[in-house]
Write a structure and sequence with these properties.
Length: about 600
Amino acid sequence: MPHPFFRSPPLPITPCRSNHPSPRRIITYSVAGASKPSRDVSLLRRAADLADRSAGCTSPHPNFGCVITRGSSDEVVGEGFLYAQGTKCAELQAVEAAGELARGGVVYLNLEPGDCYGDHTAVSALVQAGISRVVVGLRHPLQHLRGKAIQSLKSEGIQVHVLGEDLQGRQYEEALKSCLTVNAPLLYRAAFHVPFSVLKYAMTLDGKIAASSGHASWVSSRLSRGRVFELRGRSDAIVVGGNTVRRDDPQLTARHGGGHVPVRIVMSQTFDLPEEAKLWNVLEAYTIVATQRGARKDLQKKLAAKGVEVIEFDILNPGDVMACCYDRDYLSVLWECGGGLAAPAIRAGVIHKVYAFVAPKIIGGSNAPSPVGELGMVQMSQALNLVDVSFEQIGPDMLISGYLQPIPDLFPMIPSANEIPSIDPTLSPYETNIISFYKTWDPFGAFSNFSAHPIEMPYENGERTMWPSVEHYYQAHKFVGVDSPVAREFVEKIKTANSPEEAARMGRRLQREHPKLVRADWERIKTDVMYRALKCKFLTYPHLNTMLRSTAGSVLVEASPHDLFWGGGREGEGLNYLGRLLMQLRSEVLQKEASSNFTLTQST
């Protein structure tokens, strides 16, 4: 999807499919005769374009792109991008693609590497490849990662230049905007502590989103609706109001042929919702209804029985709903609501960007609804102006997009990890006796089953085989040992899934759709399967073993808001079995270490 800051068309985005092509490739990309500043700008934008290719394939995450040139020339010899959390980092992909041509080369990164596993894969890959210079578009916006990789590269004698610090001037603004745009969700979340929110609507030339009767199918063209599916695939959640559910009965799925499926959120103050609706089918996507406390308890129970989650607020408002989404680690939210909900969302300051699809139609009607309701403005001088506006023709329609709030450049708003204690000693993401983990880029993200740590484990025939992650191994073993060629096919599909998230989604879906193919003893043995995989992971990687031992005396909590078996839930209501197994493994490791030390002391 083109970015509003690009002055020339970006690379086309490869649609995400279940068999995603390898992101590694060697290209020839040059800027003949370009000066050093213009060369840096072009190649940083190239890195940002690469980073954007992962959007829509998995849950939104920091987007990393890496480009390597031969020496100080313009020839690109290797590149890569992070496909998803728990997959090979962009820097390692680019180094592998470049081979020996990387030695003495220059690396362009849209974002500082996020080495959060303790193994420094991205940094070590660049060091071992013999890179001479690294150009970084942005420091990492997360406090526990900001500046660490840059400092590590400098300590290895590599020259590092950062936009806005070492590279300044108007000539670098284009590159900076590209780097800001591709990670806008992460930057907004870090700066404002709310998810990045986009308001999307389609309207006629006379500003109507439906006829006076309420009929709205279809305002925009099929091509524009395809773009909407792309927007959904880039989002963690989609928000609609009760009117949309009653009037349109939407499904709100991405329909992009695979990849990430966003959560669907319905905001309804009165809970005046139908008992039957497409959104209540949670087999394809999770649904949450946010409502006022005490509203229609009978219907709440019926929807809960269908698997719909109901969250009650004392006073339902967009700000509190977005605070809830922030607590759930959502990065990006798409609002597809009517004008009655869009207006309070804008007034609350939670809408950051607008996508308006304008169709060349006129419908008229004094009572026909418009995309935004009453904002309380009485003079044109009060109108909200979009910044960095972009225009794009999509079939017969015109897409107008822009920002209500500029993308925050977090330099120097967010201090480095070393500066935090001097600013506010109380700043800490965790309580002293509780260590939470969820996303792989968290400080203890390596504890997640989605972390990029392959494990070698025995298979059915006793031979050892390599699994891309603990999550791949666990999900596949729901079907291991079942005497069915279909079950064996499921195992192979899960094993070769492109990312841990896709393995998890595939395993859960197949378990729901084919319960008879799930091994009969699964509920009894699943914790044993998980423990074996965790033990292999933490004994295979010494730095993970050290990290686990360093948490002695702390309670480990897997902070999933949805999985109440493996996770701790939103308010501690979950069973937290993953945290329990890790603490059990930690105890086993520490006991073995103490026993070894005792034996060594006795022998001396």
